[in-house]
Specification:
669 residues, alpha+beta, nine-stranded mixed beta sheet, 10 helices
């Protein structure tokens, strides 16, 4: 009998827990790989080195992590097998039976070298670009197979299959962005190479992509008359005008006009006695010798600067009668002086002036005007001689407004001098790309002053021009000043300047006193005002070549002589595209058209397309070029000449590639 409340107190026993073994193996190598086990087993064991086992209850989730490198034979992790799930080098297995997981290792994939080679370092955006992509596994390794794609900016090519480790891809025109984009190639191995090679990328050097540059010439509207009097040089009384090399050198460069007797010397020089207040001219620089041996012998037009600063005794101010006698004597010698300017730069304190009030605008105007002034006396002695006054817009104290108003009616032209740089502050970029255009800006100021004075359309003579106003250095011998000079000639043609004379033709070497900094481009370690060589006897500038050798600046005049032809007219040449690098000037030319086109980029060729309104063909095209590459020969004392290319008949528009830092005359019949 069972007691009250009694019974069986043992209950039902739970079933026993099932345990299983987890075997952790490795392949290549088969052992020795340290595996991290995040879940300790029933024996409190976790990490181990293959091969090893762990015991777990059924349903346990175990996480194992294999190292990236096996640590024994240089192989690297490839994959897990036997896992419930994997993620990279991590294996997760849920224990529901005896399980085996294996971490497989393999030899590391080779990172191939991808080389991207564009067919050109510089193109116009309108041009396509051929690119060769090569993929190399290195010596002793199999040739990679698979495909490559090419990208740059928003452009991506189609995948192209490698053949013998190489693939050509052509980037279409109008695809690459202007500037200097790079090209990136991506290699993707195929099944055969995927066990040997990893994916890889390679990048090209930057490719210069230029906007398509066009030069459009409007032939329908004629601009200012073209004159060969832009092709002028100063000469000075300190240099022997009987030197036999002068005339052939000037004629080879197309020089047509001269200015004499030489800048600031003009206000101290006395022509009748060939003397100078405070100095001594060359003994052969008598005025009759200058006329006979240079001016008449070379058929040069002559402008003189009258002495405003001193009288013949060097005790008082200039005498208009001396100037009048000078032009009168010229006629006796067989020369009519075309232009005579009253004094040289008398607005500046550096000029000799023995008037009671020195370098004064009102005094200057009074001496020019009136019945006994310079204008009246010079015109009486030589009616065909034009008489001019000096101008300098923005001068302090004011000069132009006073002179142009007070001397109104007593000047036939104005003379302006232009030197945009100061010594020691020269800049190639400024000189090549901006300085010449600055002349036009300043000439427009002169024109506005003439309008205000009631003398619009008064002719402008640029009596002196150069790059630096004093102490020239290596830039004066370089292609950079040549490019500036060429653009100056083009600007003056477009501006309607009637006459121009560069400072100076011969006889003004500056040696090593100027700026010869490495920041300026050039191969010479000396500078000079003169743009024709004085020869090896001029020790300071002996490296400029034999006497009469043309510097790049003289070459600019030589090229422009093909365009500065009397009877022709300037035309408007409009540049679109690379307007910083390319500038162009144009004129009619013997029934055809002539252009002066510049590439102002130091390193990059510029393709340009030239069109002429109303014309679709030329029966003959000639291109004359002077470039940096030609100038660079002077590094070995070779002063080479421009190149001339006869292209024959051509359809228009015409596409040319301009060399870096080059000036190019294009003659289209």
């Amino acid at each position: 009998m069972t007691a009250c409340g009694g019974g069986n107190s043992g209950g039902v026993k739970p079933p026993p827990v099932t345990t299983y073994e987890l075997t952790v193996d490795s392949a290549d190598p088969a052992s020795g790989v340290a595996i991290t086990v995040s879940t300790p087993d029933n024996n409190a064991e976790s990490n181990g080195t293959t091969s090893f086992t762990r015991t777990y209850d059924q349903g346990t989730s175990v996480t194992l992590t294999a190292p990236n490198a096996s640590g024994t034979n240089g192989t690297v992790f490839s994959s897990w097998s036997g896992c419930t799930s994997t993620k990279g080098a991590t294996c997760t297995v849920v224990i529901n039976a005896n399980e085996t997981v294996t971490a497989t290792y393999a030899a590391p994939l080779i990172m191939p070298t991808v080389t991207v080679t564009p067919a050109a370092a510089s193109i116009a955006r309108s041009q396509s670009l051929a690119v060769t992509i090569t993929v190399s596994g290195g010596a002793g390794n199999p040739m990679p197979t698979g495909s490559v794609t090419l990208t740059s900016g928003s452009y991506t090519s189609a995948a192209t299959t490698l053949t013998n480790g190489s693939a050509p891809i052509t980037v279409p025109a109008e695809t690459l962005a202007a500037g200097m984009p790079t090209l990136t190639a991506t290699y993707t191995p195929d099944a055969a190479s995927s066990t040997v090679y990893a994916s890889a990328m390679g990048m090209s050097q930057g490719v210069t992509v230029n906007l398509q540059t066009t030069v459009a010439v409007n032939q329908a509207v004629a601009g200012p008359a073209v004159t060969d009097q832009l092709l002028g040089m100063n000469m000075a009384a300190w240099y022997d005008p009987t030197t036999s090399a002068i005339i052939p050198a000037f004629q080879a460069a197309g020089i047509k006009a001269l200015r004499w007797p030489g800048g600031s010397w003009s206000d101290d020089y006395h022509w009748a006695t060939n003397t100078l207040c405070g100095g001594a001219p060359n003994s052969n620089s008598t005025y009759p010798q200058f006329v006979s041996d240079l001016a008449l012998a070379g058929s040069f037009d002559v402008a003189l600067t009258a002495d405003y600063g001193t009288d013949a005794a060097c005790t008082g101010p200039g005498d208009p009668a001396e100037a009048a006698a000078w032009v009168a004597d010229s006629i006796k010698l067989g020369l009519t002086v075309s232009h005579m300017t009253v004094g040289n730069e008398e607005y500046g304190s550096w000029e000799t002036d023995m008037h009671a009030i020195k370098n004064d605008a009102a005094t200057y105007a009074a001496a020019t005007a009136g019945g006994t002034g310079y204008y009246a006396q010079i015109k009486a002695a030589s009616p065909a001689t034009l008489v001019g006054v000096s101008v300098n817009p923005g001068n302090n104290p004011p000069w132009d407004p006073i002179v142009l108003s007070a001397a109104k009616g007593s000047y036939d032209f104005v003379e302006f001098h232009y030197y945009p740089e100061g010594p020691g502050s020269e800049s190639d970029t400024y000189l090549v790309q901006q300085a010449a255009q600055g002349l036009t800006t300043t000439l427009n100021q002169v024109k506005a002053e003439l309008v205000t004075a009631g003398e619009p359309n008064t002719p402008i003579y640029v009596g002196e021009m150069g790059s630096v106003y004093s102490n020239p250095g290596k830039q004066s011998e370089s292609i950079t000043q040549g490019l500036y000079a060429g653009q100056m000639l083009g600007e003056m043609m477009n501006d309607g300047v009637v006459r121009a004379t560069w400072w100076i033709g011969f006889g003004n070497c500056n040696g090593t006193a100027g700026n010869d900094s490495a920041s300026l481009y050039g191969w010479q370690d000396f500078g000079a005002y003169n743009v024709f060589a004085d020869g090896p006897t001029d020790a300071g500038c002996a490296g400029a070549g034999p006497i009469g050798t043309m510097s790049p600046t003289a070459r600019a005049f030589q090229l422009f002589s093909n365009i500065a032809v009397n009877g022709e007219n300037a035309l408007t040449a409009t540049v679109a595209g690379e307007t910083v690098d390319v500038v162009a000037y144009a004129a009619t030319h013997s029934g055809g058209t002539a252009l002066f086109v510049f590439n102002r980029n130091q390193t990059t060729p510029e393709p340009v397309t030239i069109s002429l309104s109303g014309t679709n063909a030329s029966k003959g095209v000639t291109v004359i070029t002077y470039s940096k590459a030609i100038y660079d020969q002077s590094q070995t004392n070779v002063w080479a000449t421009p190149t001339t290319t006869a292209m024959g008949a051509q359809s228009l528009p015409l596409t040319l590639t301009l060399d870096p830092w080059s000036m190019n005359v294009v003659l289209l019949q």
